[in-house]
Recover the amino acids of this structure.
């Protein structure tokens, strides 16, 4: 009866286990996650979100929040609880004159990119088009424009939030400034964000793509990656990767399935500088494969979507890394040259450039002094290989602990990383936990990288 009453009050819909849409709704990106919620509330607007929160409280249901459904740990779902499903809230409103975008949380990065690109504008987002803008932003947001324009949160200027009380508030530098500070990196701890307002930057086409080198050159490539990008212009970005060459076009037959290392470049500077910037890079090695060319930014941001479609099994771990010492490089090569499956990989994403210009305490994202976010990614098509990818990721992660600067990016954690949350927020943890106490004293929103409310 209670559910029927809620159904009548909503603009959106409710899916129960007996409904035909239920299984599709609980299908999230990581196929390793198999949770059975009691109900999904497919919200259409902020009032639906508020009603779902009040309903869950009254009926003592645990709540999870689902946006893009990309979270590796499967935080979007909850067994026997209520899922606040934002995936149908997809409005995007762009003001090209003011260079702002108001974005609802159900959008993927691909949809956001496409909409802003029409105006020659962009938000710094992640490297896969099917990731949700929502979870990515709340955790920080790393991608090809990090060095040029900062983290995704560095372009966030306001958010509309439904609090644990059901109240709807606007958070920005002037209104609920503490909440606005916490949202920029603090994840889903403080309420449900129903719209994000971003400040856009002009970027249209980029000169970008992967270059690959043989695995035997990995040490030199990592050293080159370190020194060459250190003082480079913020227009040049590259992330380092260990990978197996995909067994598919456009990769040449003789390289397919071999272990290699690579750098995926993105240059946003002027065309006349391309030769000057890329000649020394091309001379280094030289690369065995060079796919770097001019392309629209959305093409780059979705270049690997075909390789990582939804429905694969994922287990990942992460570190913050500051220095690529000889022994750190040796540890990386030991595991990176022995990937357990064709799609498993390791990426080192830069966090310098513009992201370093923001102070450690200016947003909740504390580790502004580190150079790289490392993500160790075990991926398998075959669920029988889940233990294989988990063991490899855990062993690689363990071996990297002595080389980590402490903590790791919260968006690259699994359910077994809870003990690491405090370290990951570093100097900002105590303030975050006080703000949590103010806005969510009962820890109603706890299915996230959980920051517990302060006790005093
Ligand atoms: C293939 C792949 C590539 C990725 N690449 C990048 C990358 O390049 N850069 C990067 O920074 N990250 C990257 N990520 C990590 C990504 O940022 C996280 O997985 C993020 O959680 C995804 O957000 P989502 O909305 O899709 O997730 P969901 O699973 O829907 O949400 C995850 C959690 O975030 C919180 N949350 C989400 N939306 C809201 C909201 N509106 N209000 C309150 N809480 C909310 C909730 O706690 C929720 O459970 C990648 C992930 C994958 C799988």
């Amino acid at each position: 009866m209670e559910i029927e009453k809620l159904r009548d009050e909503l603009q959106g819909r409710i899916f129960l286990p007996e409904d035909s849409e239920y299984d599709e709704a609980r299908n999230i990106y990581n196929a390793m996650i198999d949770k059975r919620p009691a109900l999904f509330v497919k919200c259409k607007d902020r009032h639906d979100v508020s009603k779902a929160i009040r309903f869950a409280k009254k009926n003592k249901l645990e709540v999870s929040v689902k946006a893009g459904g990309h979270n590796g740990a499967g935080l979007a779902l909850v067994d026997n609880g209520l899922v606040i499903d934002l995936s149908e809230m997809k409005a995007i409103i762009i003001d090209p004159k003011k260079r702002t975008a108001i974005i609802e949380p159900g959008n993927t990065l691909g949809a956001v990119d496409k909409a802003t690109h029409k105006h020659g504008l962009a938000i710094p987002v992640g490297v896969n088009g099917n990731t949700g803008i929502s979870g990515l932003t709340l955790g920080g947001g790393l991608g090809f424009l990090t060095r040029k324009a900062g983290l995704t949160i560095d372009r966030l200027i306001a958010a509309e939030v439904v609090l644990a009380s059901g109240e709807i508030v606007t958070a920005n530098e002037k209104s609920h400034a503490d909440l606005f500070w916490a949202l920029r990196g603090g994840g889903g701890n403080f309420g449900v964000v129903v719209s994000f307002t971003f400040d856009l930057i002009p970027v249209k086409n980029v000169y970008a793509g992967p270059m690959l080198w043989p695995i035997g050159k990995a040490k030199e490539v990592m050293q080159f990656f370190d020194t060459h990008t250190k003082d480079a212009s913020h227009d040049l970005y590259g992330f380092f990767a260990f990978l197996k060459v995909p067994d598919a076009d456009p990769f040449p037959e003789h390289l397919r399935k071999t272990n290699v290392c690579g750098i995926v470049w993105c240059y946003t500077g002027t065309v006349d500088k391309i030769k000057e910037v890329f000649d020394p890079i091309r001379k280094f090695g030289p690369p065995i494969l060079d796919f770097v060319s001019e392309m629209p930014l959305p093409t780059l941001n979705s270049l690997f979507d075909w390789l990582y479609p939804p429905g694969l099994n994922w287990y990942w771990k992460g570190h913050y890394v500051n220095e690529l010492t000889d022994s750190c490089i040796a540890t990386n090569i030991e595991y990176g040259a022995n990937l357990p499956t064709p799609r498993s990989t390791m990426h080192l994403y830069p966090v310098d450039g513009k992201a370093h210009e923001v102070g450690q305490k200016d947003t909740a994202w504390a580790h502004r002094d580190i150079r790289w976010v490392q993500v160790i990614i075990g991926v398998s098509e075959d669920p029988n290989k889940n233990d294989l990818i988990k063991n490899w990721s855990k062993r690689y992660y363990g071996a990297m602990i002595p080389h980590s600067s402490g903590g790791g990016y919260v968006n690259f954690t699994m359910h077994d990383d809870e003990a690491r949350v405090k370290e990951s927020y570093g100097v900002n943890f105590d303030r975050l936990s006080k703000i949590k106490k103010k806005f969510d004293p009962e820890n109603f929103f706890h299915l996230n990288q959980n920051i517990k409310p302060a006790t005093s």
About this structure: The CA atoms of residues 66 and 76 lie 4 Å apart. The domain at 205-418 is CATH 3.40.462.20 (Vanillyl-alcohol Oxidase; Chain A, domain 3).
